[in-house]
Amino acid sequence: MSKDLESLPPMDKLLAIMARLRDPDDGCPWDLAQDFASIAPYTIEEAYEVADAIEKNDLNHLRDELGDLLLQVVFHAQMASEQDAFDFNAVADAISDKMIKRHPHIFDTSQYRNAKTQTIAWEEQKAIERAELAAKESRAVSALDGVASALPALTRALKLQKRAARIGFDWPDAAPVMDKIREETAELQVEMDAGNGPGMVDELGDLLFSVVNLARHLDIDPEAALRAGNAKFERRFRHLEADLADQGLDPKDLDITALEAAWKNSKTHDNSTD
């Protein structure tokens, strides 16, 4: 079997490997036990690892992670083919057709090429696709159609806000968004004072949504901003741990006052801004 695989082109080889792993007679027990739902978290994880490699500008790692992500596509396509739903070729055909439809300025030479007409054509085609899906599902078309519910919450909030803004549902600038953040903070405080758990969840959600809206108005990617904040915290906390270890101290043995002093010291050794 391995010799036969080695003679195949790379994509055919990968498809054959996955088919072998899912062989009901002598495939891999773990792979055979999986379904779309059980594999979905791995798919999301691999997409994040691709993003991480890009952020680190590590092209060797990116090659490996893209391979892992491709495997996820092949896995899902294999499971679908077992149900006679679709196969990998159908997936490739569908995205190829979609890209051609969304790029008439490239594949239809009668279209005038410039960035503005390209964007308009792209959005028009996506609107057509959303309308077709809504008709198929016998429901009204919404400006929010197509925003996947499984997206990370910050990313989904940003996309929902952008969609709403297209039809004019938006603040004119960042100033009223800051006012909204203050309003939501005050409402959260009311629920905190009342000890209202569900109310706190609701108001904290509103506050986070408003913060994402501020990021959008400042032309800042909230996911990227939070990743940078996470990285800064991790960098500084690791320095705190190392500094305390050099003094023979364990963070668990210190009170919050001592830890705060150590934290301030770690910030002085950090070249990033607060």
Rg over CA atoms: 25 Å
Morphology:
extended
CATH C-level class of the largest domain = Mainly Alpha
Q: Report how far apart the termini are.
A: 58 Å
CATH topology of the largest domain: Helix Hairpins
Tally of helical segments: 13
- Tell me the strand percentage band: under 5%
Low-confidence stretches: none
Main beta sheet = none
Please provide a written account of the structure.
- By secondary structure, the protein is mainly α.
- The protein has three domains: 2-91, Helix Hairpins (Orthogonal Bundle), CATH 1.10.287; 142-220, Helix Hairpins, CATH 1.10.287.1080; 223-268, no CATH class.
- 73% of the residues lie in helices and 0% in strands.
- The protein has helices at 2-6, 10-21, 29-33, 36-55, 59-82, 88-102, 104-107, 115-136, 153-166, 174-194, 197-217, 222-246, 256-268.
- The longest helix is centred in the last third of the chain and has 25 residues, at 222-246.
- The mean pLDDT is 91.
